[in-house]
Each structure stands twice: as structure tokens, then as C-alpha cells.
Specification:
Elements: E1 2-9, E2 12-19, H1 24-31, E3 50-53, E4 56-59, E5 72-74, H2 87-94, H3 104-119, H4 138-144, H5 155-180
Parallel strand pairs: 1-5
Antiparallel strand pairs: 1-2, 3-4, 3-5
């Protein structure tokens, strides 16, 4: 049975007719030609298909396309600002956060999601109790990105990349607070 759905992917609206059993991953890749989310395990275990759905991280291989009707989907490609790469893209390059690159789009989307979660004050399993603003140190980042696997083992570079962006954002927030103080 086919159902009409609308997806807003990387700022562009797409109207699709999909079988109710089609995953969001297959709709993105096979119907829309968006290839940055990768089909790794197809069981939600590797994270290579991770995108942001309405700002939250999702594994698209476990999400039905019909359940995403009306959603805003952001892929790694959609994170960039106009023609400029996102700060996470640059950080992954600067810190050798990839080798073969297969998992990189999912890693970057997951990193964008974990940065937003930490900024919103969401704790992880390793966040100390009674913490209102988690500090994104290496341990916290490893825990938060643990659902994304890298077969090449580029974890040291991935963690360093995310940590560098987190530190840069914290510096920006500190400067803005300082500049706003009369």
C-alpha cells in the first residue's frame, strides 16, 4: 500500500508516494538520491545512517518513512552554511576524524546532535549527578557518540574533532556573555 508523504530534506520539500514498509533510509537514498546516510548494518547498530530529524538524532534504517511525514531531515550535506562547510566538517578534516569515510556522514550528524543535546543540558550515562550543563570532555563525547561505529578505528580523531568544536562553541558563548554584560 502506497502512502503520500512530505519530507523537508536539507531545506528542500519532497512529496513522495512510498510503501508503508519503506524505511526513511531507503526513501532518502533510493527515491531522493541522497547518499550521505549510508546503509551499514540495516539493524540500527552501526549509526552510519544517522541523520537529524526535527533536530534529533535518528537511525534511518529503523525509521519508517511514513512515520517521518512532515519532518525536517538534516543530513551531513545539509549542515553546511551555504557553500561553507560546517564547523564539524572542518574539524573532522583537521583532526583526521575519518579514514575510509563511510561512517563519516553519520558520525557528523550524531556529533551535531550530541552538541545540541549537551547545550540543552541533557545528561548522558557518564554525566555526574546534579550537573545542569554537561562538559563535553573526551569521556562524555565517547559516551554520547557510542552508537556510531567506525570500522577503521578513527575514534581518537573523531573525539578530538567533536571536542574542538565543543570548546570553540563554549568560547563563543563566554565571549557573548562577557560582551553583553554592561
Amino acid at each position: 500500500m502506497e502512502t503520500e508523504i512530505t519530507l523537508i530534506v536539507d531545506g528542500q520539500q519532497h512529496d513522495l508516494s512510498v510503501d508503508t514498509r519503506v524505511t526513511l533510509l531507503d526513501a532518502l537514498r533510493d527515491r531522493l538520491g541522497i547518499t550521505s546516510p549510508k546503509k551499514g548494518c540495516d539493524h540500527g547498530q552501526c549509526g552510519s545512517c544517522t541523520v537529524l530529524q526535527n533536530g534529533r538524532r535518528v537511525t534511518t534504517c529503523l525509521t519508517f518513512a511514513v512515520a517521518s511525514d512532515g519532518s525536517t531531515i538534516t543530513t551531513s550535506e545539509g549542515l553546511r552554511d551555504d557553500a561553507d562547510p560546517h564547523s564539524l566538517h572542518r574539524a573532522f578534516l583537521d583532526h583526521d576524524g575519518f579514514q575510509c569515510g563511510y561512517c563519516t556522514p553519520g558520525q557528523i550528524c550524531s556529533a551535531a546532535g550530541l552538541l545540541a543535546e549537551a547545550e540543552a543540558g541533557w545528561p548522558s550515562a557518564v554525566t555526574p549527578p546534579d550537573t545542569t550543563a554537561p562538559t563535553l570532555d573526551a569521556e562524555e563525547i565517547r559516551e554520547r557518540i557510542s552508537g556510531n561505529l567506525c570500522r577503521c578505528g578513527a575514534y581518537q580523531g573523531i573525539v578530538a574533532a567533536v571536542e574542538s568544536v565543543a570548546k570553540a562553541r563554549e568560547l563563543d558563548r563566554t565571549r557573548k556573555r562577557r560582551d553583553a554584560t554592561p
